[in-house]
Amino acid sequence: MRPPPDPLKCIETAGFADYSLLDSGVGRKLERFGKIIVDRPEPQALWSPHLAKAKWDQVHAVFSSENDEDKGGWRLHKSVPESWPIKMCSVTMLCRLSGFRHIGLFPEQLPLWEWMLGRLAERGDESPRVLNLFAYTGAASLLAAAAGAHVTHVDASKKAIAWAKENQSASKLESASVRWILDDAQKFTAREVRRGKSYDLILVDPPKFGRGPNGEVWDLFKSLPLLMKDCAKLLAPTRAALLLTVYAIRASSLAFDQLLREVLVNRGGIRESGELAIREREGARAIPTSLFTRWACHDSTHS
Hints:
By secondary structure, the protein is of the alpha/beta class. It has helices at residues 53-56, 110-121, 139-146, 158-170, 185-195, 220-234, 253-263, and strands at residues 9-13, 19-25, 28-33, 36-41, 61-64, 73-76, 84-88, 91-95, 129-133, 150-155, 178-182, 201-204, 209-211, 217-219, 241-246, 270-279, 286-296.
């Protein structure tokens, strides 16, 4: 008989000093980023809010869209600066109200970033090589660079890379080793394979759909398998790690777990898969936000 699959797990964060999930319900979530409070769509919040409507009405900004897609607009109830800083671990991230309901930071990723830092710390005085694909505004890149890694940050959006560089300056990490690459993740990774490159840690955080800087089409369910095969080829032969997160929450973490097992079939190590979630400030409920699967090639793990 085949052994049963490893159980899927849920990794939660309760936020940090500059971020809190204040309440959620009826398809919305109420969050504090620094001193700014926002009301954003959250289809997973099927329950009723705990806080009174008067508390929700005290927000700085409300995001709305005509459907379940990210694109829409913000309605301001109070003055909001063009950007404002929040401190997270060793970095400072500049938040702003984007046209796609995002603020520039995904706080639920914090436990995975802490796991990443644990992997890097195990290498002692070495300077690990980190590849961050679909790297957006650079939180993971900057955390890794602050920990002494040589980071290759790849994103298809010139605007996102410019934002990430602003975060680098805000974090006073101008001298850190970050290589900024404006490119299609799939094309860049394939070239790195041909060049015989290797990385000690690879981060993959793809969208469901997207386009590269030259119009390349990204479709998660069609494009991810090939990309992950190339990522497997780029992993260093010893003490490597790989982290995949996916925001297609209607998909299954089991599917991505099995994809990772396939591309790493000849390597041992520890694999974990499941969901990320953010717990409300009062602790009663947690919102599932994304799926993850992670792998490391020796016997210790970091939760």
